């Protein structure tokens, strides 16, 4: 996938542009200790792009629990907000943004608006993105295509003219379901194939 072949570039945020996944995982681990649910870092990483409230629903279902989703998310997000100043953009992704800064660019994230905006502000990336679509903007989250379709619409582009950068299988599913190309990002590096 060559970005030159597309009119717009869409980016997941956590784990794709910014190294926030360790912060999310640390926050989930603290919440797991406090609420007594099982913690599996790999499993949670694979759920990147799924809003925290839905993750709690999945935990309840898979672990036979009845956790109060709002309380778990509030606690998890509190830990995450305290850790956020540590977040840094991946150097390779920052270089890619700088190279294509003249293109229409958008964020399509499963994070809440408050978290996404704080990450973008703390890292100085907000200037690149006139369109930021968060979990608060859609009712059908990744792997459904709505996040990326709304981002393309916000840029005034047809979906097939957009290239998505993602770090999780769920995010890739969302991009492909939207009819977009997708480049996977592994450990902060785009994997061109």
Provide a descriptive summary of the structure in words.
The chain has about 190 residues and is of the alpha/beta class. The chain folds into two domains: about 5-20 and about 85-190, Rossmann fold (3-Layer(aba) Sandwich); about 20-85, DNA polymerase, domain 1. Helices cover about 45% and strands about 15% of the residues. It has eight helices and six strands, in the order βαααααβαβαβαββ. The chain has a six-stranded mixed sheet with strand order 3-2-1-4-5-6, with helices on both faces. Helix 1 (about 20-35) crosses helix 4 (about 70-85) and helix 3 packs across helix 4. The longest helix is centred in the first third of the chain and has 15 residues, at about 20-35. The N and C termini lie close together (about 5 Å). About 40% of the residues are buried.
């Amino acid at each position: 996938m060559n970005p030159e072949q597309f009119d717009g570039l869409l980016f997941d945020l956590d784990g794709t542009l910014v190294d926030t996944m360790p912060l999310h995982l640390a926050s989930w681990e603290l919440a797991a200790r406090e609420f007594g649910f099982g913690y599996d870092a790999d499993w949670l990483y694979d759920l990147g792009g799924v809003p925290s409230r839905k993750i709690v629903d999945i935990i309840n279902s898979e672990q036979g629990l009845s956790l109060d989703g709002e309380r778990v998310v509030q606690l998890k997000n509190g830990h995450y907000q305290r850790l956020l100043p540590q977040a840094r953009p991946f150097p390779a992704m920052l270089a890619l943004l700088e190279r294509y800064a003249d293109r229409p660019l958008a964020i399509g994230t499963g994070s809440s608006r408050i978290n996404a905006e704080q990450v973008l502000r703390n890292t100085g990336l907000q200037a690149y993105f006139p369109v930021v679509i968060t979990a608060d903007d859609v009712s059908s989250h990744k792997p459904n295509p709505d996040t990326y379709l709304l981002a393309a619409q916000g840029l005034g582009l047809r979906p097939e003219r957009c290239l998505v950068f993602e770090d999780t299988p769920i995010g890739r599913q969302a991009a492909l379901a939207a009819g977009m190309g997708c480049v996977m990002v592994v450990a902060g590096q785009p994997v061109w194939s």
